[in-house]
Amino acid sequence: MNTGSVWFTLVTCAFFMGLVAWVSYKKTKGGNNDSRGYFLAGRGLTGTFIAGSLLLTNLSAEQLIGLNGQAYRTNMSNMAWEVTSAFAIIIMAIYLLPKYLGGSFTTLPEFLSKRFDEGVRQYTVILFMLGYILVTIPSMLYSGGIAVLQLFDIPALLGLGYVESLWVVIWIIGIIGAIYAIFGGLKAVAVSDTLNGIGLMFIGILVPVLGLIALGGGSMIDGMKEIATTDSEKLNAIGSSEDSVPFGTIFTGMIFANLFYWASNQYVIQRTLGAKNLAEGQKGVIFSGFYKLLIPFFMMIPGIVVYHQHGDSLQSVDLAYPTLITSVLPTYMSGFFLAVLLGAVFSSFNSLLNSASTMFALDIYKTRINKHADDRKLIKMSQIFGTFLAIIALFVSPLLMYAPDGLWDLIRRFTGFFNIPIIAIVLVGVLSKYIPAIAAKVVIIFHVITYYMLVWGTDHLFGFTVDIHFIHIYAILFFIEVFMMIVIGMIKPREVPYQYKANPEVDMVPWKYALATSIFLLSLVVATYIAFSPIGLAYTNGIVSDYFWPANIGLAVLTALLIFMSIKFWNKKYAGYLERSMVVKTTRKRKLGKRLSPSFTKYQRVEAEQ
C-alpha cells in the first residue's frame, strides 16, 4: 500500500470514527452525572441498543482473526463456541435476567454478596479481574493489532521490526479505546457499539462475498461450488476427537462455558442490567442469539477461502483473515474497514474496562474502602482504576504473539480458570437456599489449583499429560464443584435460608414473544449444524446428500408445532410464574391457644418504580 493510499485510508477512517464518536456524545450528553447513569446507562437501554452492544462486545477482532484462523487450520468445528451459545442466551433471557432485574442488581458480585457473603463477592471480583487483565483484554488488543499490521504493512511504513510495530499499534489502539470507556460510561459504549455493529455486519457479509467471487474467478457461484466440492471436509462442523472442538464437547463443558459468558460475565450482562424494562432486556439478549448464527458465514468462510487460495503456506493461522482483506477489499473501502475493525476492538476493550471499573468502584471501593463515597467519588475512582487496568493490559497484550496454536485456542484454555467456578456458584446460589458461603470459597480455590494441574500442571511438574480435552475438563470440574457445595451445605447449612427479595426498578412484564422466538432460535441452531455436516455442505460426493432436505423439513414442522404451543399455552404460564416471583412472602405467627400456633403467610406485590 503506497503512501497516498495510506493517508486516504487514515483520513476516511478518522471520518467514520469521528462520526460514531459525535453521535455517541449527542446520545449520552448529560447522562453520566450519577452512578446509575455512568454504570447502567440510567437503566434506559432499549432492546436495539442492548443487542447491538452485545453483538459488538462479543464479535471483536478476536473472532475475526481467531475463528478464521481456526477454519483455515482445520474446519468449521470451532463455530460451536458461537452457534451453541444460543442455549445459554435463552437461559439468560428467560430465567436469569428476571432474577437480576427483579433484584435491581448492578453487578454479578453484588448478587453473590446478597446470596452468600462479602467474602464470596471479593473472591469473584478477583477472579474476574485476573481473567480480564491476563487473558481477555490483551487478546482483544493483540488481535486488532495484528490485523492493522497486516493491512498496512506497518513495519515497512515506520521502518521498524515486526515486534516493535506490534507494540506501537497496540498502544495506539489501547489509548484511544480506553478514552471511550473511562470517560463515556456504559451508554456511550452501548451507542458506539450499535453503530459500529452495523458497520461490522456490512463488512462481515461483504468480505466473504468478495472472497468467493475472487476464488470463483469473478463468479460467486463458482466460488461457492469450489469450497463445497473441493476439500469439502473443511465445511464440516461435526468435530472429531482430533479437532480442537470435538462434537461431544458441545454437550459437556461448552454448555457451562457459554452459560458463564452470557449469564454471569459482568462485561456482557452489564448491558442487560441497564435495560429500561424486562421486555426490552429479553429482546436484546435473544436478538443477539440470531446474530451469533451468522458467525460461520462471515467469520469462518473467509478462512476457508484463504485455504483454497493459499493452501497451508501462511506463516501463522492468525494471518488468514488479514491476508484475504488485503487481496479483495477495494482501496476506497479500506478506511471504512479500518474504522469498523478498530470499532470492534474498542468495543470489547472498552466494555471490559467499563465492567472492570464498575466492579472495582461498587464491589471493592464502595464496600471495603469508602462506604460513604458519593456518586462523584465513585465515578472518579472508576476512571482511575480503568486507566491503571488499561496500562497493565498494554504491556501484556504483545506477549500473545508467542502463542503456538493460534490466539483462539489459547484464550479458550485460559478462560477455564474463572468461567466454571463462577457459573457453578451462580447456579447453586439461584437454585438453593441452604448452601453457605464457605462452600463457594472452597470451590473457587479448589478450581484454580485443580484446573491448572489437569491442563498444564502435570506436564510442567511431573512430565506427563492428562489425556482429557480441556472442554471436557470444564464439565468434569463443574459437576465436582456443584457436588462439593451440596455436601458442604448438608454438613454445615446456612442457619437462615436465603430468600430472594424482589425489588425491581423497572417494569417486569415479559416480552410476549420471548418463548416463541427462543424456540425459533434453537431451531436455527440445529439447521446450521445440518448445513455444516456430512449430510449438508461437507458431503464429499456432491453439494449435499439426499438426507439434507428431509431433515430440514422435519425440523421446520417440529418448530412450527412448538411455536404454536408456546403462543397458545406456555406464554400465560410463564407470565404467571414471573408475576409470582415478584411477590415478597413473609411469615408471621399468631397464637390462638396453648397448642395452636399456625403460621399465616402474607403476600405483597412489589410494584416497579415508574
From TrEMBL:
Keyword Membrane found: yes
GO cellular component, one term: plasma membrane
Family: Belongs to the sodium:solute symporter (SSF) (TC 2.A.21) family.
Membrane protein topology class: Multi-pass membrane protein
Domain of life, per lineage: Bacteria
GO molecular function: D-glucose:sodium symporter activity
Protein's recorded name: Solute:sodium symporter family transporter
NCBIfam families hit by this protein: PRK10484.1, sss
UniProt keyword Transmembrane helix present: yes
Spans through the membrane: 6-25, 37-59, 79-102, 123-145, 165-183, 195-215, 245-263, 284-307, 336-362, 383-404, 410-431, 438-458, 470-492, 513-535, 547-570
Keywords: Membrane, Transmembrane, Transmembrane helix
InterPro entries for this protein: Na/Glc_symporter_sf, Na/solute_symporter
Main localization (coarse): membrane
Intracellular or extracellular location(s): Membrane
Pfam entry (one): SSF
